């Protein structure tokens, strides 16, 4: 009668031991992986990319009575990568210029590679070719023009990849929004207020 207990215990023991060993191994793995991620993160120390519009002006402005707009825009876009370990591939960059929620110009930047701790300036030469504006938008533009400058928005959409050492990341979508940009109607760009953009990856 007393013999009935030990066999059941003997069966139960190795099982609970096994479960404990598995739990310990799993826990150790989680801790090791977590530490590895932390160490990688601390060595790379990713920092946000910094974009700004450093200059902007409007030329050849002509808004017809039928609310068709012709103009050219010169913007200086500055892209700064503050990272010491991360460089960036820009595989596709689309630019949109907006006034009052109406798109007045589109452009692109050629694919480029940005090294670590690098600042690059891009001259964006954009234009409106006979762009049809909504009635109220055209009215706002006419009124604002009399002050010698207008408020515009420059948005960028980019497909980028990060590079750390020899490792390259997957593609990320990056949205950059620069607003408000006070753009002058003159060749002299003095008084232009540098605008820092919002960056969203
Ligand atoms: C604007 O365009 C219209 C039509 O093309 C032209 O008649 C007019 O002279 C232009 N105005 C200016 C200031 O260039
Ligand atoms: C804009 O330019 C086009 C030609 O590029 C011309 O046909 C049109 O009349 C111009 N419109 C204005 C408002 O100047
Ligand atoms: C940034 O990188 C570009 C492209 O590689 C290079 O032409 C430029 O000189 C670099 N600028 C600085 C400040 O290092």
From TrEMBL:
Official protein name in the record? Late embryogenesis abundant protein LEA-2 subgroup domain-containing protein
- Residues crossing the lipid bilayer are 21-44
Question: Which keywords label this protein?
Answer: Membrane, Transmembrane, Transmembrane helix
Q: What is its main location?
A: membrane
Keyword Cytoplasm recorded: no
Q: Taking every annotated instance into account, which residue ranges of this chain make up the domain Late embryogenesis abundant protein LEA-2 subgroup?
A: 77-178
Membrane topology term: Single-pass membrane protein
Question: Under the cellular component aspect of Gene Ontology, which terms does the record hold?
Answer: plasma membrane
Q: Which GO terms describe its biological process?
A: defense response to other organism
Q: Which organism is it from?
A: Tagetes erecta
């Amino acid at each position: 009668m007393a013999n009935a207990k030990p066999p059941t215990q003997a069966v139960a023991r190795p099982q609970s031991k096994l479960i404990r060993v598995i739990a310990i191994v799993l826990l150790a793995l989680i801790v090791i992986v977590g530490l590895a991620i932390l160490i990688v993160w601390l060595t790379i120390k990713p920092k946000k990319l910094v974009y700004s519009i450093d200059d902007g002006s409007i030329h050849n402005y002509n808004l017809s009575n039928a609310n068709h707009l012709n103009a050219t825009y010169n913007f200086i876009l500055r892209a700064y990568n503050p990272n010491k370990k991360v460089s960036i591939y820009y595989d596709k960059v689309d630019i949109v210029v907006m006034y009052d929620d109406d798109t007045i110009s589109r452009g692109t930047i050629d694919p480029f590679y940005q090294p670590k701790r690098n600042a690059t300036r891009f001259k964006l030469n954009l234009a409106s070719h006979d762009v049809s504006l909504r009635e109220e938008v055209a009215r706002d533009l006419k009124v604002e023009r009399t002050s010698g400058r207008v408020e515009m928005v420059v948005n960028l959409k980019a497909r980028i990849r990060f590079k750390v050492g020899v490792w390259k990341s997957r593609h990320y979508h990056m949205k950059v929004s620069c607003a408000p940009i006070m753009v002058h109607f003159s060749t002299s760009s003095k008084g232009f207020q540098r605008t820092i953009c919002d960056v969203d990856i």
